[in-house]
Amino acid sequence: MKFNFSIFNLFFAFLFCFGSLAAQETTVMVRALAKDAKFIGSSIGGAKIIIRNAETGEILDEGLTTGSTGNTKLILQTPLERYDKLTDEQTAGFEAKLKLEEPTFITVEAHAPINKKQAKVISSTQVWVIPGKDITGDGVVLEVPGFVVDILSPQTHERIKASEEISLKANIIMMCGCPVTEDGVWDANQYEVKAIISSGEKETREITLNPTDKPSTFAAKTNLEKAYYTITIYAFDPVTGNTGVDKTNIIIN
Predict the structure, then answer these.
(1) What start and end residues bound the annotated signal peptide (predicted)?
(2) What is the mean pLDDT of each run of 10 residues along the chain (253 residues)?
(3) CA 60 to CA 42: how far, in whole Å?
(4) All domains of the chain, ordered by start, with CATH?
């Protein structure tokens, strides 16, 4: 019997087209929530979201969270019951669009805050996504722990005379950019902020930085002998375990 290649080719063309039509765009909302704080959004540059096929590593979508940090009262001061939402239409998030032909196991990563390299951490989770079954509302929420610590003084590689008093100053904020103030929602008095001053030639010293009148600003003063120094300033919350660190180097001559 003579084989009809035209029918054979038509059959496989049909299968190919059917497979293409089966791919469905599926929406997955992803948000990054700072631990003990609010959502990471436009005000601090956002969180970089990367969604991968967990089996192959292929990136299915990526982008930045944009929008507001959310409602402080709702997120931090309101008892929530099952199915209560933490977000509204303005709350920061990244709406991923995935083209899926079959149920897919994905890895969701948040790199945040994306513009603060010394503070950036990666938070991730995994979830099954079904073609055409959108994950919306609060969506996939990734918790991002820590503080953003920026050393304001002394400046990197600053040369200071041994006779001069050294100003130690740091800016401490939550990972969403929310300010730290005395007796505020994020109480500066609750946090331990210290400078570790080390040199290969001298004994390591530890100095406490105290809150100032300026929000999120902690400061102290000290004197140092001639040497090269590494200054590490850290913030620690003994209640939540949030931590943050920044480093700089100076020369005392």
Answers:
(1) 1-22
(2) 52 48 90 98 98 98 98 96 96 98 98 97 98 98 98 98 97 98 97 97 94 98 96 98 98 97
(3) 23
(4) 24-144 (2.60.40.10), 147-252 (2.60.40.10)
